[in-house]
Amino acid sequence: MNRQKDIEMPTLLNRYATPFITGLFLVSLVSGVALFFHWGSFAFHGMHEWLSMVLIVPFVLHVWKNWRPLLNYIKKPPMLVAIVVSLVAGLAFALPAMTGQDAGGSPQRVVFEAFENGALANIAPLFGHDGEGLTSVLRGNGLTVANPDATIKAIGEASGKSAFEVIGQIAAVKR
Fold first, then answer.
1. Could you state, in order of their start, the residue ranges of all structural domains in the chain?
2. Which residues of 127-158 are buried (b: 16+ CB within 10 A; e: fewer)?
């Protein structure tokens, strides 16, 4: 019986590793292009992140299945060049953000940080409210709001919520 299982696993790997890599790569490709051009970012962001994580499993299976041919590639200059160029390209994007040298980050992050550090009284009119009224509504929704001059970040910390969750509650308040 164990012999049968030994035969089934390689057959399963041979049949599905490469097709799943292909399918998930295509999903990653389409969602990555959509994110790059800001087409339906809301729909594609989670899909791209999560299915790229799922792609790791068939990738590992594919490498396992093709280990010997991969070793032959590794011994040749094109593989070394491709790996070095890929790592340098990745570092060119990552290092400025990791060292705090990028020019403010993505526009979405800059806007979010402005909201996060903004006083509720200043943000309320953007959602069709005044500071006092929105303070009252948020308190009624269970948030701890010291006063209309409290920042979104401070409200979140006092309420045990993230600033993102606080902004979500503000956006959900009916005008």
1. 9-65, 71-103, 109-172
2. eebebeebbebbeeeebebeebebbbbbbbee
